[in-house]
Amino acid sequence: MVDRFEGSEVYVRHDPKTGDVILSPRPKSWQEFFDLLETLGIPNDFLSDRDDRPPAHAEDLVMPSLYLLDTNTVSYVIKGNTPRVWARLAKIPVPQVAMSVGTEAELRFGIVRRTESQDLRIAVHEFLLRVTILPWDSQAAIEYAELRAASNVQVRPSAI
């Protein structure tokens, strides 16, 4: 049997229940992920120790053509208790969504602290399948500082 996938990427994951290795194409939309979250029991206090609140309006999440999500935004998506964040994310094509490796580390730390929640582990894994993970290095920090100084915008940086 030969299966073919569109594009040049294939995602590999491990099914913890069956032990099977699963190959799948990159997801094309967020709706399947949102549907999955509706069936899982994600703890409302996942990453709630972070002192941040979602913006009052989804339009306040102004982003360029590559959307770089911070840890707080990802936690709102995964917990599913901020519908306006889901609504905004649903409008963004999956290939245009990214996060830093620091945010990935925060998510993985969050599930390590909640070892009893298999649903949370599944949700984080499925989310990570859909986003591009971007590395950060010193040059990126230097460029960030220059851009921020040039824009003269008051921004609260996310904790990484």
What does this structure look like?
With 160 residues, the protein is α/β, with parallel strands linked by helices. The chain has a single domain, classed as Rossmann fold (3-Layer(aba) Sandwich), CATH 3.40.50. Helix content is 41%, strand content 11%. A 3-stranded parallel β-sheet has the order 3-4-5. A two-stranded antiparallel ribbon has the order 1-2. A hairpin with a 6-residue loop joins strand 1 and strand 2. 18% of the residues are buried.
Concise summary:
By secondary structure, this protein is of the alpha/beta class. It is built from 6 helices and 5 strands, in the order E-E-H-E-H-H-E-H-H-E-H. The protein has one domain: Rossmann fold, CATH 3.40.50.
Question: Which structural traits does this protein have?
Answer:
160 residues, Rossmann fold, 3-stranded parallel β-sheet, 6 helices, globular
The amount of helix comes to 40-55%
The pLDDT mean sits at 78
- The dominant shape is globular
Within the largest sheet, what's the order of strands? 3-4-5
Structural class: alpha/beta
Q: CATH class, please?
A: Alpha Beta
Please give the radius of gyration in angstroms.
17 Å
Task: Itemize the secondary structure elements and their pairings.
Layout: E1 11-14, E2 21-24, H1 31-39, E3 67-69, H2 71-79, H3 83-90, E4 97-100, H4 101-113, H5 118-130, E5 132-134, H6 138-151
Helix pairs in contact: 4-5
